[in-house]
Write a structure and sequence with these properties.
This protein is an alpha+beta fold and 594 residues long. It contains 15 helices and 19 strands.
Length: 594
């Protein structure tokens, strides 16, 4: 009998060890599954953020690309580049470039002859003037002469300041007189990147950091530079005076070799993801911490492992209770001489079992409480995650899901989660469609639903509208109008962008868009309650390069382009101040019957 007891104790110890091992294995498997799934969702959210930032930066750079061609048509530029140029013609060119540079808010505008010698520049009167310098070794000069346009990021040889260069040839008749170049400061983009919660960097086509949330990481290489690349950088003096050391993040080397890459860094402590930035060969990279994701996964996995252990212990308890019952039957079957001893022994065992039952009950209560706390932690993290999404529809579903979970209505909660996944997929598709808004395609007029046009524009500007605390009132109209895909959206984007700037100091800013059909026409009234315009400004509002904004804050081309687009699709746009204050734009479009 004593041997049987010793054997039972050994088996119980083995069983307990097996339970612990199984709980650990189940908990680890649950952790890996939950962590991987959450990381996938985080990667999808990061990709949406990166594509939005990429679209914004690309639009900021693209708006300057056609300016060199427009400036190059001026007679003063032609006169300065001719072989018989006089000091007076060069002086006039310098003054013209200085004025244009002030209006556009660019860093520098300068012209070079066909040999790369700078003849006139907007900084002609500055100590670091480009006049007299030869930049034929720069890729933007060679690109302009050979391909008709040159684009280049680099550190200025004369100024030592970084910038983005856009160059095009100056052509008069069949003769190429030289090259005109615009240098753009990227300080505004650098400031915008610095405001993100996660770490962001922008790398050029060679994998070198040109913009970063941390200035100390500028001009670091995210991959090993080949001898050919180093030689090219030396010849073009692209990163003049920089050592181009390898990029390190928290002591770990960061390598970005492929577009759309996603990886875990530093023992899965950080999520690294990149997307292309336009067609320049650049990438924008986001590095986000996985600490919160790991914490949620650990808490959930711990609750699952604990629940599994509780179930196994309950089964073992049931098994041992049955064994004790069989032992009681065997004791009663023994001879009367052993009844007293066996009764004492059984009483002791019953007492031990009652103690075990009390312990198990407490363990069960603790497990239930821990499960509740884990579920509450997971739910809070999920709601926080959903509220960070840029789409209000997802925020609404997330709020409803929280209420369903609190009420215990799990079937409807699961349906809401499926709806959230569908909305995320739809948001990604919409972001892809938004890339067409800034393509310089030929204007092709076709019937398009007016409400779709306005909603696409709102999708682009909504982050800025929310940030400025502006209320947006839109009166829907599902009728079709004659428009051009991506063009009319740009008109509303320009109007909203101007309103955001005008209402920056207004605590009760309102943008109202009212649409109505009048016969064969559709009239759109766009109104904001900003300060309006002076009489002089109202008469010049649609003129190119006219702007009421401070120097460097606007090109003065947005409304001029908007009028050109509306005229091109057969419509009409007008602007006037309202008697009660504010500014109103009236857009008349052609209606299309179904």
């Amino acid at each position: 009998m004593q041997k049987q007891k010793a054997s039972a104790k050994i088996k119980a110890r083995y069983a307990f060890t097996v339970v612990v091992v199984l709980c650990v294995l189940i908990g680890y498997a649950a952790f890996r599954q939950i962590f991987d799934q959450t990381i996938e969702k985080e990667a999808a959210r990061h990709r949406q953020n990166l594509e939005t930032v990429s679209l914004s930066i690309n639009a900021t750079l693209s708006k300057y690309e056609e300016l060199p061609q427009a400036i190059a048509k001026d007679a003063r530029i032609h006169a300065a580049l001719k072989a018989k140029a006089t000091e007076r013609t060069l002086e006039q060119a310098n003054e013209y470039l200085t004025e244009i540079n002030r209006i556009l808010g660019t860093d520098t505008i300068y012209i070079m002859n066909h040999n790369g010698l700078t003849l006139a520049s907007s900084n002609w009167d500055q100590p670091d003037t480009y006049v007299g310098d030869n930049y034929s070794f720069r890729p933007y000069f060679m690109g302009a002469m050979e391909k008709g346009i040159g684009k280049f990021y680099g550190i200025g040889v004369a100024s030592g300041k970084p910038g983005y260069y856009i160059a095009c040839p100056v052509i008069l008749g069949d003769e190429t007189l030289g090259v005109i170049t615009i240098k753009i400061r990227l300080s505004e983009i650098q400031s915008a990147i610095g405001e993100f919660n996660d770490y962001l960097v922008v790398t050029n086509e060679d994998g070198i950091v040109i913009l970063s949330s941390e200035a100390t990481q500028l001009y670091k290489a995210t991959r090993q530079l080949t001898p050919e690349t180093l030689e090219k950088i030396r010849i073009t003096r692209q990163f003049y005076g920089q050592s181009l050391d390898l990029f390190e993040f928290h002591g770990a080397a960061l390598s970005i070799d492929d577009d759309n890459e996603r990886k875990l860094l530093n023992g899965e402590s950080y999520l690294v993801q990149s997307v292309p930035l336009g067609g320049r060969g650049w990438d924008i990279v986001q590095i986000g911490s996985t600490r919160e994701t790991r914490t949620v996964a650990l808490a959930t996995a711990g609750a699952i492992g604990f629940a599994f252990g509780f179930l196994l212990i309950s089964l073992l308890n049931w098994y041992y209770r049955r064994a004790a019952h069989r032992e009681k039957l065997e004791i009663f079957a023994n001879i009367e001489m052993q009844i007293q001893d066996r009764t004492i022994e059984l009483t002791s065992k019953i007492h031990d079992l009652e103690k075990a039952e009390i312990i198990l009950k407490k363990t069960r209560d603790d497990a239930v409480q821990a499960g509740k706390l884990a579920a509450l932690g997971q739910m809070a993290a999920g709601v926080t995650h959903e509220l960070s999404q840029p789409l209000s529809a997802i925020q609404l579903y997330a709020g409803n899901t929280k209420k369903l979970l609190e009420s215990g209505n799990l079937p409807l909660a699961f349906e809401n989660i499926d709806s959230i996944n569908a909305l995320v997929t739809r948001a990604g598709a919409i972001l892809s469609e938004l890339k067409t808004l800034y393509r310089n395609d030929e204007t092709r007029v076709e019937p398009i639903v007016l409400n779709t046009i306005i909603q696409n524009a709102v999708l682009v500007m909504n982050p800025f509208i929310r940030k400025a605390n502006i209320r947006l009132d839109i009166e829907r109209l599902d009728d079709k109008v004659m428009s051009s895909t991506g063009k009319l959206e740009q008109v509303f984007i320009n109007l909203m962008s101007n309103s955001v700037d005008a209402l920056a100091s207004n605590d009760d800013g309102i943008i109202s868009i009212q649409c109505a059909r009048l016969g064969e026409k559709v009239v759109v009234r766009y109104v904001d309650n900003g300060p309006g315009l002076s009489e002089e400004a109202a008469g010049k509002i649609f003129e190119p390069f006219f702007t009421t904004k401070p120097s460097g804050k606007g090109l003065g081309l947005g409304l001029a382009i908007s009028k050109f687009i509306v005229d091109a699709i057969g419509g009409k746009i007008e602007c006037h101040n309202l008697p009660a204050g504010g500014l109103e734009f009236t857009i008349v479009l052609r209606h299309v019957s179904d």
